[in-house]
Amino acid sequence: MSRKLNQQFNCSKMMLPEHRSSLEQQILRERCDRELRYPAFDEQELDRLQQQLDLALANKQPIRVTVLENSVCQIYSGVPLRIDQGTGIIVLSTGCGRRQPIQAAQVVALEQADPQ
Q1: Closest CA to 81 of 56, 104, 103
Q2: What is the distance between the alpha carbons of residues 18 and 22, in angstroms, rounded to a whole number?
Q3: Tens of pLDDT along 58-75?
Q4: Nearest by Cα to 67 from 116, 101, 93
Q5: What is the largest CA-CA distance in the chain?
């Protein structure tokens, strides 16, 4: 019985090249959408991120912030200078007097950076 089913679907294994490429593009798009999506943070995770940020701000410790901008992950390292609660902007001092404003809504990950 399984032999009949296997032979029945042998013809469906053949695809036209344009259908195959279209299917591959669709799979690639779905994979990219899955990989580059903002994570759904729960309340505990948001509190943990806020505590890490507040601690780094108070102690002038460097942090590494991963941000999703225009479907590209960017990593910024620096010492937080200030947090503007009203606009949701975190300002990092990235060295050499440069300041990098970061939208808090775009933050994907935040971690302690190694002091240099």
Answers
A1: 56
A2: 6
A3: 999 999 998 888 777 888
A4: 101
A5: 74
Using alpha carbons, list the distances in angstroms from residue 101 to 5, 24, 29, 65, 86.
60, 38, 30, 11, 14
Distance, CA of 66 to CA of 110 (rounded, Å): 6
Question: For residue range 67-96, what is the model confidence (pLDDT) as tens digits?
Answer: 888 777 888 999 999 999 889 899 999 888
- Say how far apart CA 65 and CA 8 lie, in whole Å: 54
Beta-bridge mates of residue 101: 91
Entry pTM: 0.63
Is residue 2's pLDDT more than 70? no
Angstrom distance (rounded) from CA 111 to CA 53: 9
Distance CA 6, CA 41 (A): 45
